[in-house]
Amino acid sequence: MPINVKNAGLATTVQDLGRPGYYHLGIPIGGAMDRFAMRVANMLVGNDEGAAGLEAVFMGPELEFTEDAMVAVTGADLPPKVDGEERDTWTAFSVRAGQVLSFDFLRDGARATIAISGGLATTPMLGSRSTYAIGALGGVDGRAIQAGDVLPIGTDGRAVAEGRTVAAADRPVAGRSAELRVIPGLYWHRLTEQAGTNFFDDTWKVAPEADRMGYRFQGGRPIDFVDREPPFGAGSDPSNITDACYPYGSVQVPSGTEPIVLHRDAVSGGGYFMLGTVISADMDRIGQLQPHIETKFVKVNMHTALAARRERRARLEGIRAGLA
Q: Among 35, 87, 240, 303, which is least packed, fewest CB within 10 Å?
């Protein structure tokens, strides 16, 4: 039996862990902005970690259940309520047939992941149910959910007990400031030495223009570029390059003014230089940043990036073991 959408919230989409393998064709991996939260939410309700759930931005939806289910809400601190009674986040709780799941006001973070036992069984496209709205792929007719939609539920989950929870120490907290670790990239030489120093010294703030394609940052000093003769095929702006592939997490600074970190639904290439790439272990963190959050970029090397990735994997493995 399905779930009836009574209110869709602000921008609630069906997401899973994305559709890798098509980036060379211009189709991004997509999927949950906070992959850690998606994996853990699915663990809590007995799903495969890649099962599809909902990603709610700033405001939660209102969902009427037509059959009993286990639910978990992770990521942003967006308190869930069952028939108006608040439930804990990062904890599995039951919703009975006929009950309504809604949400209180956002307390921390930006995106909440909602996992439902069995997973959402919307139609997969290119191996994923994730919503890629620009390409009209996945989700519900390639878009965010709307009031009146009916969300089908799968049957692949395993039965688990209510109350399964994640220790407070293993729950990421968004907070009111952030540090994002960056590895300088192939085009770092395009910056003047002082501009490179300023980029890491300055405090930036998340701009209102922050979405699934990318996060813009404001408030730091403009980036100065080394003088050059534009190469054939590049634009006249000093931030232009001959079209190249964009790594996931790459940092662009169009015209040298406001850095943009490309995220899950970003395009795969173009003509802006990239000063570096945010390490994979910090990409989930970006998805939880609200506008105006103060952010520092921290210069690291590949050794640090790989160590952070191993630490993140170990954290997930610890949660798996604890819930087994």
A: 303
Let me know if residue 66 belongs to a domain: yes
Residues 189, 46: one domain?
Answer: no
Rounded to two decimals, the pTM is 0.95
Cα distances from 112 to residues 1, 60, 69, 130, in angstroms, run 24, 8, 18, 15
What does the block give as tokens for 304? 């640090």
* % of the chain residues with pLDDT over 70: 100
Last residue of some domain: 143, 170, 197?
170
**Beta-sheet strand order (sheet of 93-95):** 13-15, 53-57, 108-116, 69-77, 93-95
**Torsion of the alpha carbons at 313, 180, 304 and 174, rounded to the nearest 10:** -30
> 318 lies in a domain?
no
Mean of the pLDDT values across residues 217-238?
91
> Do 228 and 86 belong together in one domain?
no
* Domain CATH code at residue 185: 2.40.100.10
Instruction: Give yes or no: residues 27 and 92 share one domain.
Output: yes
Q: Pairing relation of β-strands 80-82 and 69-77?
A: unpaired
- State whether 14 and 144 are in the same domain: yes
Within 237-301, residue ranges assigned H as helices are: 283-287
Give the containing element (helix H, strand E) for 41.
helix 35-45
State which of 170, 205, 224 marks the end of a domain.
170
- Angle (CA) 25-29-34 rounded to 5° is 165
Nearest alpha-carbon partner for 111 in 290, 292, 249: 290
| Cβ-Cβ contacts under 8 Å for 238 (sequence gap 6 or more) | 190, 225, 228, 255, 256
Could you give the number of structural domains in the chain?
A: 2
Q: Is the pLDDT of residue 1 over 70?
A: no
Task: Give me the domain span that covers residue 245.
Answer: 177-313
Check: CB of residue 158 under 8 Å from CB of residue 190. Answer: no
